[in-house]
Structure to design on (267 residues):
């Protein structure tokens, strides 16, 4: 039995056999979104086979299963990052596990730095496309020809359209833009920020892109949103740090909670 099959059995033992069609991955400082769940079951990552526990503060270390707006959903309260072990596929087992329990739609959140003065800290930016600036890919070494994934419309256009309508109804500003993935753990230099902005990026971060690639490989629909926590290096006088990221993520968290609750309910 592979890890995903084993984990699916563990999840069903804890949370029952009812299908789970939606999974949500939470970024830095956003683990409070898990408090929205009803009938919540918590499973520690360490209880699951091959789940990376992760060592970054601000990220949870549990899988939650429950209902949100009458939809059964799984929430990964934190993620592991490439920079922790040097593996682009570090989230493969968790996402394969989600597919094994029936997940068809993956919702991703992260904290990111803005490259646009019109998208300041505290705002949300829905991701419409990405730039894999690192070149690292979680499917390197995958032996099947399924590895040749078409990444056009990787961020599902219908889900994005739906989210914009919900944001409008809630009187929330939901910006759209291109997210660039840097490996971390260091923050970008001002020169790197100027370069990637010239390439067409609107925000930068250290996650999400490998998960999008894996999810598309696994046949899932994907939606992703960044909570903007800072301006890119050299664009303001902020002292950029992980502590600052966690503090500022709370500003966007309430907006994300409103948006996600409605989006999950309307899927």
């Amino acid at each position: 039995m592979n890890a995903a099959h084993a984990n699916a059995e563990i999840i069903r033992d804890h949370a029952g056999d009812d299908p789970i069609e939606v999974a949500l991955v939470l970024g830095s400082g956003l683990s409070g979104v898990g408090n929205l769940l009803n009938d919540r079951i918590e499973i520690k990552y360490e209880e699951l086979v091959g789940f990376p526990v992760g060592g970054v503060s601000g990220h949870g270390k549990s899988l939650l299963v429950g209902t949100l707006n009458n939809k059964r959903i799984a929430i990964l309260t934190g993620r592991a990052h490439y920079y922790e072990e040097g593996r682009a596929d570090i989230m493969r087992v968790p996402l394969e596990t989600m597919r094994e329990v029936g997940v068809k739609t993956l919702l991703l959140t992260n904290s990111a730095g803005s490259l646009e003065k019109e998208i300041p800290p505290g705002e949300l930016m829905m991701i419409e496309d990405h730039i894999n600036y690192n070149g690292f890919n979680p499917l390197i070494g995958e032996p099947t020809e399924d590895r040749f994934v078409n990444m056009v419309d990787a961020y599902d256009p219908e889900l994005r359209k739906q989210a914009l309508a919900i944001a409008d109804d809630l009187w929330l500003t939901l910006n759209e833009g291109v997210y660039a993935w840097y490996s971390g753990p260091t923050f970008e230099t001002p020169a790197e920020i100027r370069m990637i902005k010239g390439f067409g990026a609107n925000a930068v971060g250290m996650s999400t892109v490998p998960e999008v690639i894996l999810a598309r490989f696994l046949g899932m629909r994907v939606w992703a949103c960044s909570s903007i926590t800072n301006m890119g290096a050299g664009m303001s006088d902020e002292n950029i740090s992980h502590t600052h990221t966690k503090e500022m993520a709370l500003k966007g968290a309430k907006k994300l909670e409103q948006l996600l609750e409605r989006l999950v309910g309307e899927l």
